Amino acid sequence: MIFTNSFFVPIRLYLDILDINLQTLIQARNPILYAAAEHLFAAGGKRLRPAIVFLVAQATINSNLVLNSHARLAEITEIIHTASLIHDDILDDCTTRRGVNSVHNIFDTKIAVLAGDFLFAQSSWYLANLGNLEAVKIISKVIIDFAEGEIQQNLAQFDLTISLSDYIEKSFYKTASLIAASCRATAILSQTNMNTQNNIYNYGKHVGLAFQIIDDVLDIIGSTKILGKPSGSDLRNGNITAPALFALHKNDQLRYIIERELSIQFDITTALNEINNSMGIYQAKDMAQEHLQAAIASLELKSNSDKYTKLLKVAEYILSQVL
Fold first, then answer.
1. CA 160 → CA 156, 240, 265, distances in Å?
2. How far, in Å, CA of 75 to CA of 5, rounded?
3. Record's family (predicted)?
């Protein structure tokens, strides 16, 4: 487990149980389909999304204990996320994920598509069995958002006309939507009022956007060992993220390289160097910090309240990944 921060100690047991349950929840009759679906769960990952569910649960019921429905929601959230990764890797033709070979690289594309579909279906089954219609509606919308995000991303490959607002919208669909929706669903399961649900949703939305921006920064500056996939993967696939968008300003060489779709040897190396030597990384970090500040503001903390302290620490943890 990646989390060593003290504020994750109260949920460490829940995360350990989640790791065990994720593999037992996958009950495909076909052994190849089971192996494909189970592959990424065994590889681990940050588990940020279920961790946030547990922390929101503890904050909204004001207890270190969580409800069984919260625990199942955390599992559903990670299943949906993993399903989206399998499909993402097919579309982007990624060879590795979480430091291991991608599912379609081990098996084949057809098996990987079926494995992703199977996980989405499995998550829908468990979601329906939560017995809370509002939570079901909110989480179900996420799967629609994933598709919208993928369509936007693939239509905008190597497109230099995309704006920061286009990038933020796509980032919401692909990342922040699931985190925001799971935060609201957690608050609903805790039977909180609508005001609290809205605040928690906005917290998740801005944390999710910050997380995606930081992830895009790491894709530029990180090593393959740390990322679990080759650095610059987004740019190789024509996905122009925040650091590149900022770096493109008054940089004709970078613009020319991207316009020709990195078609010449060493283009990716040159492009990454141009982005690293610009203000793009710093501006992207600043934008992530703005969203983290918005997330903190969404909690509307009272000076004498520490109910949401751990959720504030999540914001600090996300930003620390690039400091």
1. 8, 8, 21
2. 21
3. Belongs to the FPP/GGPP synthase family.
Task: Extract the tokens encoding 251.
Answer: 């940089």
- Nearest residue to 216 via CA among 178, 261, 171: 171
Reported as a single tens digit per residue, the pLDDT across 185-219 is 999 999 999 999 999 999 999 999 999 999 999 99
- The crossing angle, in degrees rounded to 10, of helices 68-92 and 109-128 is 160
Is beta strand 100-101 parallel, antiparallel or unpaired with respect to 96-97? antiparallel
Beta carbons within 10 angstroms of residue 220's beta carbon = 24
CATH number of the structural domain 6-320: 1.10.600.10
Rounded to a whole number of angstroms, the CA Rg of the chain reads 19
**H or E element, residue 100:** strand 100-101
Q: Where are the alpha helices (H) located in the chain, listed in sequence order?
A: 9-25, 31-43, 48-61, 68-92, 103-106, 109-128, 133-155, 164-171, 177-189, 194-221, 224-227, 233-236, 242-247, 252-259, 267-276, 280-298, 309-320
Closest CA to 107 of 115, 99, 119, 118: 115
306 is written with which tokens? 């520490």
Q: Are 170 and 149 in contact (CB under 8 A)?
A: yes
Global confidence as pTM = 0.91
